[in-house]
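The protein record quoted in full:
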Amino acid sequence: MVYFSNGQITIRNMECGDAQAITDAEIEQGWDATIEKYQKDWKINNQGRQFHWLQNILENQLAI
Protein backbone atom coordinates (compact mmCIF):
# COMPACT_ATOMS: atom_id res chain seq x y z
CA MET A 1 0.00 0.00 0.00
CA VAL A 2 1.31 3.47 -0.88
CA TYR A 3 0.76 6.06 1.83
CA PHE A 4 2.40 9.02 0.12
CA SER A 5 4.07 9.71 -3.20
CA ASN A 6 5.12 12.98 -4.78
CA GLY A 7 7.48 11.86 -7.57
CA GLN A 8 10.59 12.13 -5.40
CA ILE A 9 9.55 10.26 -2.25
CA THR A 10 7.25 7.26 -1.95
CA ILE A 11 6.25 5.86 1.45
CA ARG A 12 4.79 2.37 1.21
CA ASN A 13 4.59 -1.01 2.91
CA MET A 14 7.56 -3.33 2.70
CA GLU A 15 7.41 -5.88 -0.13
CA CYS A 16 9.19 -9.24 -0.39
CA GLY A 17 11.71 -8.01 -2.97
CA ASP A 18 12.76 -5.14 -0.70
CA ALA A 19 14.76 -7.50 1.52
CA GLN A 20 17.58 -7.81 -1.01
CA ALA A 21 17.62 -4.09 -1.83
CA ILE A 22 17.81 -3.15 1.87
CA THR A 23 20.54 -5.73 2.52
CA ASP A 24 22.59 -4.50 -0.44
CA ALA A 25 22.23 -0.85 0.65
CA GLU A 26 23.32 -1.65 4.21
CA ILE A 27 26.34 -3.70 3.05
CA GLU A 28 27.31 -0.80 0.76
CA GLN A 29 27.30 1.45 3.84
CA GLY A 30 29.57 -0.93 5.76
CA TRP A 31 26.96 -2.73 7.86
CA ASP A 32 27.15 -6.47 8.51
CA ALA A 33 23.67 -7.10 7.06
CA THR A 34 22.02 -10.37 6.10
CA ILE A 35 18.95 -10.84 3.93
CA GLU A 36 17.38 -13.24 6.46
CA LYS A 37 16.67 -10.38 8.88
CA TYR A 38 14.63 -8.48 6.32
CA GLN A 39 12.91 -11.60 5.01
CA LYS A 40 11.80 -12.23 8.61
CA ASP A 41 10.66 -8.60 8.96
CA TRP A 42 8.63 -8.93 5.74
CA LYS A 43 6.98 -12.12 7.00
CA ILE A 44 6.09 -10.54 10.36
CA ASN A 45 4.79 -7.46 8.55
CA ASN A 46 2.49 -9.62 6.42
CA GLN A 47 1.14 -11.34 9.53
CA GLY A 48 0.10 -7.91 10.85
CA ARG A 49 2.28 -8.19 13.96
CA GLN A 50 4.41 -5.14 13.14
CA PHE A 51 4.67 -2.70 10.30
CA HIS A 52 7.55 -1.50 8.19
CA TRP A 53 7.15 1.43 5.88
CA LEU A 54 9.77 2.20 3.29
CA GLN A 55 10.74 5.48 1.77
CA ASN A 56 12.01 5.24 -1.77
CA ILE A 57 13.96 8.43 -2.27
CA LEU A 58 14.89 9.15 -5.87
CA GLU A 59 14.51 5.41 -6.58
CA ASN A 60 17.92 4.45 -5.17
CA GLN A 61 17.85 4.68 -1.39
CA LEU A 62 15.65 2.74 0.99
CA ALA A 63 15.07 3.64 4.61
CA ILE A 64 12.96 1.86 7.15
